[in-house]
Amino acid sequence: MPRQASTPMAGPIFDEPTASPDPVQFKIAHPSDTQLYKQVQNLLTKDVVAFTKMRGKPDDLYSLESALGKPGPAAIEKITSAKKIVFHAGGDSGASAQRNLAHELSVADQITLDCHSAADPDRPRFFYHLGDLVYNFGESQYWYDQFYDPFRNYPAPIFAIPGNHDSFIVPGTKSASEPLKIFARNLCAAKPNITAEAGSLHRTAGTQPGVYFTLDAPFVRIIGLFSNSLEDPGVISNQSGKFPKVPNFQIEYLTAQLQRVKKENYKGALLLATHHPPYSYAPASSGSGGNHSSSSEMLFEIDSICKQVGVYPHAFLSGHAHNYQRYTRTVDFGAKDPYDVPFIVCGDSGHNVNPVVRPKKGEPAQDPGNGIDVSYLEGKKTGVKSKGVLLEKHDSFNYGYLRISVDAQQLRIGFHQAGASSLPQSRFDMVTVDLATHTMVSN
Ligand SMILES: [Fe+2]
Question: Is 132 exposed, middle or buried, given 0-12, 13-18 or 19+ CB atoms closer than 10 A?
């Protein structure tokens, strides 16, 4: 461990043939990041990264069926006849220190158990990772301890959009060791192969077509965008020259994907995903929220394309802020009833959990409560007609993940806390959206 070169395989492999006990320590000791952070602090707000175009055309879909290899057609048939699909999502899983390993394992083990214990129609079919797989910053030698080993028994594909920790380049990093290249080697391979990062484990590299891509599965389509390497905000384009290094591929891509949805009159659930959250809580008065802020310009760009094409997603998923936050944005999109769009942050899948409001010196954090109007988080301009934003529910303290199920009529997004003994008890929150009307349904 690790292997010196990649090992080609005839088809994808997801888990180990025999389950093994949880590791109790890293194989490669991870030094403290304090010095590294001091060194790069002033770059975290300005050093964006370039990336390559995804394989294929901007309106291409990457199917779950193709990701599954030879068993793909039979698996899709099973999902179709069950009349619904279930999958997991979550972000910020990487344990950057030995002391956090148990937290990462608590989430990874719970979703793995879910795959093994759920009755077949309700069995999760994949994990959609919302970024920040490996800290700090995405070095090859930490992939085994932070990604492959914790998820070694997860028996399904893992798809991912990169987070800032999977892409920020520490000055002096050799070109071949840049985090995004390692991410691409492990998630965006042309063919299944076991990479050096997997060590002695068998999960093959993912074959998604790029760091941004659209996953197409029965009942659901997820448009994933790479929101680049800054701590804040998320950046998906060069923003009219503000970030010259960032290519504009994703503008063309998002436009093409939404046009395809429109042209096909796609009836399934349409989700958008970025690592950086469009909204992350901060009080209106002081502006001092949790560890991350909203990415208003990114949302403005996305909204503007949605408006131009005439297609709006049913929900928006993101990570980055290490907690759970669920917003409802009400959007007048010209339909009889305004759309209720859940904007969900789930960035507590293993790395850390931070409260949505930071405590001030000598005072406890002022929890905002649930169901409050946070329309001010929209910022100065909106790309669509927003009728307001509510912070519906949040969790500042628990690790967790999303369990999402979609059928022909409804999208249901549940947030589950890690550590609960069984599934119904682990569910902390749930939102249901009617697909035809984009309106919220009471649970
Ligand atoms: Fe992040």
Answer: buried
Distance 77 CA to ligand 1 centre (A): 36
- Tokens linked to 46: 């300005």
Please identify every residue whose CB atom is under 5 Å from ligand 1, which is an ion: 132, 163-164, 320
Q: What backbone phi and psi angles, to 5 degrees, belong to 301?
A: -65, -45
SS3 357: coil
Residue 93 CA to ligand 1 center (angstroms) comes to: 10
Q: What is the pLDDT of residues 131-181, one digit of tens each?
A: 999 998 899 999 999 999 999 999 999 999 999 999 999 999 999 999 999
> Which domains does the chain show, CATH number per domain?
7-14+44-359+366-441 (3.60.21.10)
- The arrangement of strands across the sheet holding 315-318 comes to 62-63, 213-217, 220-225, 269-274, 315-318, 339-346, 324-332, 385-395, 372-373
Amino acid (one-letter) located at 117: S
What is the pTM for the complete model shown? 0.97
CA–CA separation, 104 and 134 (whole Å): 11
Q: Dump the DSSP string for 300-318.
A: HHHHHHHHHHT---SEEEE
**The pLDDT value given to residue 422:** 67
95 phi, psi to nearest 5 deg: -85, 110
